[in-house]
Design goal:
35% of the residues lie in helices and 16% in strands. It is flat and about 115 Å long. Helix 6 runs parallel beside helix 7 and helix 19 runs antiparallel to helix 20. Strands 13, 14, 15, 16, 17, 18, 19 and 20 form an eight-stranded mixed beta sheet that branches. Strands 4-5-6-7-8-10-12 form a seven-stranded mixed beta sheet, with helices on both faces. Strands 1-2-3 form a three-stranded mixed beta sheet, with helices on one face. It is built from 22 helices and 20 strands. The termini are far apart. It has three domains: 42 residues, no CATH class; 261 residues, Alpha-Beta Complex (2-enoyl-CoA Hydratase, Chain A, domain 1); 190 residues, 2-enoyl-CoA Hydratase, Chain A, domain 1. By secondary structure, the chain is an alpha/beta fold. The longest helix is centred in the last third of the chain and has 19 residues.
């Protein structure tokens, strides 16, 4: 604001007036002396401007409240907090500091008195279960801090209710933290178990906080981070939260409602047993931390009781089991810091909510020149190469982010960026069983396609496969059931899709890999491409086996077999497919990246309609 004073005022007086008014009114002030057009002095309000006569301050009541909050933030009994270091993991509030604490994990001044990280905008339910344990709760006589041998603190994560909670047990925040935070520049909802409180077990007040957080995420449309370290339901206090309409069961209902609406990312820091194990499998993406995390439908103790099997938690449900055998873990982190790094990378490919485009980045050239693509692809369709090397010549440098790398490894599923645009890649991996599609590979690819489609991430299929694997074992493993899910997901996806026939596209493999019949925006062939019901060797054997068997001379038979193979390959060559307009274009391999970038850009806003129906019946 501008203030005019008499012409007799000195510059010092004008400056004093500017400072005083700025502090008193909380606005910037310019002081003009007499008729001067330019201000003689100016001042900005102090960072916090209060009326000069206001000398009020916090009372004992507020100081007591801050002391109560600080006590709650200390977590459960000290001895359980001391054990965390031995277990190789952080106390939950130090974990929040790692995730949301800003540069170097420093705390924000605005929340320093409460001990909260800078990026935590607020916490809900700090005083949950306060009346049940705190000596300062209304009506309590100060009680002791003893009796802290709570349920669920066994090494295997079992929550057996062997020792009931009593009034002396510490139950700060009821062992579960929820709130809103800023993570990598994004607003997110979060929940985090406090393992020092009854081994992170779930009880009525904590369950209510969890449910409220999920309901609010449905309203805001912001992503959700689940930082899990829970032994399951608190068995000795299960009344009022287990089977209720608004109990633990509602977690998974809400997970289902959130699925495909906002990204849900779960990180496991310890044993997640029984009901707790469903949150990571319902999440869109699950990260397990090596050496400390596990998830299972029941603890080793319960497994032995029910089945007689003796097994430790690592072999029952550790990271290797879920990353390589069940497919429930998308990523495995070395430690807590690495887990945060992985999620920071992952969220960069995702929008905040369904219906929004994923965020774009500044384009980068690929790690290796696209000019090497043709030499990378062997001429023989049976010789392997690593499809990751192909991606390194297509995708922006350092942008390839692979998921479920140890599960169904005959297929690669990964995010990457092409000219700065996030893209979901489904690629056959010729180094793994020639890139044949096995049940696990089909299942993980179907789920990946489904997730990409939910979050508007365009799809790139890199096809080089002899097709779906045959044999009695894969039939028992559900090759038809899991294969149809991949075909269904590909058929139903309405995001822009580009398919590249890199080399062999045999059998139903071309169907699963987004072939011409599956409404891709483009089907591109490289000169190494072939499309056929089956490969030359199998075809010749199927059609000409009897004729070849009638040739007695081995050399003559081999020559005739080679001639028939070459004749067959001419029929399935990508040039024939282009001539018959089965594919849209054959592109020089060196131009593949530029072609894909141009096509994804051109078709960015393509609209596709699905039949009007409630939903399909396949997934």
């Amino acid at each position: 604001m501008k203030v005019h004073v008499g012409s007799a005022a000195t510059a010092e007086e004008a400056e004093a007036i500017a400072r005083s008014l700025a502090a008193h009114l909380g606005v910037g002030v310019e002081v003009h002396v007499g008729d001067d057009g330019e201000p003689v002095a100016s001042a900005d309000p102090p960072e916090t401007a209060y009326p000069l006569e206001d000398d009020l301050g916090p009372t004992d009541r507020e100081r007591d409240l801050r002391a109560e909050i600080a006590d709650i933030r200390e977590g459960g009994p000290a001895k359980y907090r001391e054990r965390l270091e031995e277990q190789g993991k952080l106390f939950v509030r130090d974990r929040l500091d790692l995730w949301f604490g800003g540069e170097g994990g420093t705390r924000g001044a605005g929340d320093a008195s409460a001990g909260g990280p800078a990026g935590v905008r607020f916490e809900d339910g700090t005083f949950a279960a306060f009346d049940d344990w705190h000596p300062d709760a209304p009506g309590r006589d100060g009680g002791s801090d003893g009796g802290d041998e709570g349920t669920g603190d066994d090494a295997d994560g079992e929550s057996d209710g062997a020792e009931a909670s009593d009034d002396g047990d510490r139950l700060p925040a009821d062992g579960l933290l929820t709130g809103g935070a800023e993570f990598e520049g994004r607003d997110v909802h979060f929940m985090a178990n406090d393992f020092t409180v009854k081994a992170g077990s779930m009880a009525a007040k904590g369950v209510e906080k969890f449910l409220r957080m999920q309901r609010r995420a449905l309203k805001t449309g912001n992503p959700v981070l689940y930082l899990m370290d829970s032994s399951g339901g608190r068995i000795d206090r299960q009344s009022g939260f287990f089977a209720n309409r608004e109990g633990i069961g509602k977690y998974y209902y809400n997970h289902s409602m959130l699925s495909g609406a906002v990204p849900q990312i779960c990180v496991l820091y310890g044993p997640c047993i029984a009901g707790a194990a469903y949150t990571p499998v319902f999440a869109d993406f699950t990260v397990m931390v090596e050496d400390v995390s596990a998830m299972a439908i029941a603890s080793p103790r319960m497994v032995e009781m029910v089945t007689g099997e003796e097994i430790d938690l690592r072999e029952l449900g550790g990271p290797r089991i879920h990353a390589e055998e069940s497919g429930s873990a998308d990523l495995v982190a070395r430690d807590e810091e690495h887990a945060r790094e992985l999620v920071a990378d992952l969220i960069g490919y995702l929008p905040d909510r369904a219906g929004e485009k994923p965020p774009r980045s500044d384009p980068k050239p690929p790690k290796f020149s696209p000019e090497g693509i043709d030499e990378l692809i062997p001429e023989s369709p049976t010789r392997p190469y690593d499809v990751r090397d192909l991606l390194d010549r297509i995708a922006d440098a350092e942008s390839v982010f692979e998921l479920k790398s140890g599960y169904g490894s005959e297929m690669l599923t990964a995010f990457c960026r092409i000219d700065g645009r996030p893209v979901g890649v489904v690629a056959n991996q010729p180094t793994e069983r020639s890139g044949a599609i096995f049940p696990d590979a089909a299942e993980k690819s179907a789920e990946f396609v489904w997730t990409c489609d939910a979050y508007e991430i365009p799809l790139l299929y890199l096809c080089d496969t002899p097709g779906f694997m045959a044999g009695s074992q894969v039939e028992r493993d559900g090759i038809l059931e899991k294969g149809k899910k991949l075909i269904y997901a590909t058929s139903s996806a309405t995001v822009p899709k580009q398919t590249v026939v890199v080399r062999k596209a045999y059998g139903a493999g071309i169907y699963a890999m987004g072939g011409p019949a599956y409404d891709p925006e483009s089907t591109i062939g490289l000169p190494s491409g072939e499309i056929a019901i089956m490969g030359p060797e199998a075809a010749i054997n199927a059609v000409y086996a009897r004729k070849l068997a009638e040739i007695d001379d081995p050399e003559e038979r081999a020559a005739e077999e080679a001639r028939l193979r070459e004749e067959y390959r001419e029929e399935i060559d990508v040039h024939r497919m282009a001539s018959e307009v089965v594919i849209d274009e054959i592109v020089p391999p060196s131009d593949l990246r530029a072609q894909l970038a141009a096509r994804f850009d051109f078709y960015e806003d393509v609209e596709k309609d699905l039949p009007e129906k409630k939903h399909g019946t396949v997934l």
